[in-house]
């Protein structure tokens, strides 16, 4: 076999290795660099790839190759002649006067090569996009013949193609991984909180909330949702996302209080393989998965101070670096945050950044607690029971006549989430399709929250909330009158009606006016 036939066979094998379906560069680089050592009189051949503004050694072969060489990286700014070669995508031979200009060589401080040694670089370019360089070094003076340079350029072209294919393959794997991660998160979050759509609410506060959601949904403005635990903050975030232009993009959720502090940064911003023990592969993080869509940060008040500065940067600039990486990632993410923490007090306590608060609080939304929207209680119960019926396989479920009155009396510190839990427990305990007060067992929950009504106070029983003759307004009216009778008309202060009903005095007065209850109503003795 002739020398030309050998070269042709070697180039064909390299093409085959470069086109490998797994896009594993190691076999290609091992064979290719060994081929170069046989072809050209060099003591060191290295592949250096561009990473940000640095050239980092990816592979090295030859008598001068050692661990120091394989760990080497240089700032491209120190080598304007190499930058020119990259821009031109053409080979560059360096002679003694080139090093005398103060530029030095790639391995200064690593290899003790004599002045006048022969070196050459061939840029790796796919199209006009530079990827790095092939560098050739000889310890002694010498030249590279034209035929050898041509063959080395062919190898550089094949290597550039292999690098591009490997990069595209990695990008595809990352996109597939992100899609699977999004699917996993959507499955996990599919249940969500059961709550009532604001537009369908009988509460004026909730209808105002619906209006505010419509106002902000079409903008990229950050939203801060405030409210007690269990009021449906996650549901509001979902409505904001669904009503905006990003609705066809993902809504990704993360609970800042549910993930350990040492894992929260990598969960939010992603991690580069090898960044820490257990980081066996790159992970995109929630911000990258939410790119183009919305990221819901629940319990933002529990975010560690160490991460708040990084979050502020994303909000202001749309950029961040993953854990263990130095590559800047740019994203377009609409952030909706939620908290039941008083962030102003957290700022005073130095546990929350003031600049982050004002960046998040551009458009605040306040969610009313369940005890201030009891008009929605029948509809909420109907919705929750319908979903529980389907999930638990119980068939159609109903509330007994007196159950709604008992539900109205309860202060609901856990709001809609607690209501759902109470009803689920009652459904499990119920002997049939009708849920009774015994099934609810609110007595243990009520103990210590409010004073029990006097046995002498009569509260009218509530009908079944589905199709009953008595309205909820009438149930509430009779219950408030009974409490006012118990406290001799006192509204404010300790032992007053507002305290017993777990309501703000102003809210109680507003409801009394709505229900037609006079302040100085004459109660029966």
UniProtKB/TrEMBL annotation:
GO biological process: one example: regulation of DNA-templated transcription
Keyword Transcription recorded: yes
One Pfam family here: Sigma54_activat
Alphabetical keyword list: ATP-binding, DNA-binding, Nucleotide-binding, Transcription, Transcription regulation
Domain Sigma-54 factor interaction: 199-428
One of the record's GO molecular function terms: DNA binding
Coiled coil ranges: none
UniProt xrefs under PANTHER family: C4-DICARBOXYLATE TRANSPORT TRANSCRIPTIONAL REGULATORY PROTEIN DCTD, TRANSCRIPTIONAL REGULATORY PROTEIN
Name of protein: Sigma 54-interacting transcriptional regulator
